[in-house]
Amino acid sequence: MTIIQNDYNVNEKTMALIPIFHHEYDTLVLETDRQIHVKKTPLQIIKTACLHNGSSYEGRRDAIIYQTASKRKVPIPINTSNKTFAFPTHSPTQFHCTWIFYNHICHIHPNKTPKTNTSTIMFHNGEQLTLKESHYVMEKQMQRTALCILKFCSF
Fold it and tell me: What is the DSSP string of 93-118?
């Protein structure tokens, strides 16, 4: 039986927020040990997570743009104290934008065939997520997020 939640709080177990076109829910949340269906969109969940951690989504986005000069598909620091950063696979305003949480990624594999150029994310817990985005795009997003972590987290 599928359990559907009205809301979701991003936490240390959150690995990905996947948009779903379904009449009862808008997001499939992948956590390290379960999947959750949520009635809010991935962007709504990200914006709420930013507010729970002391800033608006727009404020965090503006800070990243200022610090890194990256203006497209900007990674978002959800919680810098525990190094929770998420990055979008597309423009966040597009329906099919998935949000990936950097700290759970083990590595990304390219899936090149004559008809496709997709990628598969391997998470630390052994789960896999295949995306339509190319390996190059995903690696670029990983690099942008790593730069954000360096800029915003003290070690």
Answer: TSTT--EEEGGGEEEEEEEE-SS-EE
